[in-house]
Write a structure and sequence with these properties.
Helix content: over 70%
Order of helices and strands: HH
Shape: rod-shaped
Radius of gyration: 51 Å
Number of strands: 0
Structural class: mainly alpha
């Protein structure tokens, strides 16, 4: 890779991009090691060129830009994941709401059935009490009649 000097104050490409472009342009010789994938680059002073402060500032800006881009991409991925999760939770929430409505309907049905059973039970209890009163009345009446007859027979036998 060769370092290319950039005019001060002008934009350019990052060293990694430049390295990739150089590899595409220069044919590789057998036995020549490619520097692709290596993080370490020879400084311009080792190649006989000088490094100007504007190049360092530019590289710093490029690194900051790449860091912002990477952070923004991570945030986009997180937002997408959260959106999918939120959508999934929304669907799950809708399903739970439907189940809740169904259970409430079943609960109302059971309450109505219980009310009907209670009303029938109370009606039967009323009828039984009424029958008991009637039976008790006729039993007492029968006893009175029998006592009168017994008293009349006792009067006739004297």
């Amino acid at each position: 890779m060769t370092w290319r000097l950039r005019p001060p104050g002008r934009g350019g490409v990052s060293p990694k991009v430049q390295e990739h472009q150089d590899e595409l342009q220069e044919p590789q010789e057998p036995g020549h090691e490619s520097s692709a994938g290596h993080e370490h680059l020879d400084p311009p002073s080792a190649l006989g060129t000088s490094c100007t402060p504007s190049d360092a500032k530019f590289d710093d800006k490029v690194h900051k830009y790449e860091a912002r881009q990477k952070k923004a991409e991570e945030e986009r991925r997180e937002r997408r994941a959260l959106r999918r999760q939120n959508q999934s939770l929304g669907l799950h929430n809708n399903l739970l709401a439907l189940e809740n409505r169904q259970l409430n309907c079943e609960k109302q049905t059971l309450k109505a059935e219980k009310r009907e059973v209670t009303e029938k039970k109370n009606e039967m209890a009323r009828r039984l009490r009424k029958q008991k009163r009637i039976s008790e009345y006729y039993r007492r009446r029968l006893i009175e009649i029998q006592q009168k007859e017994a008293a009349e027979q006792n009067d006739h036998s004297k």
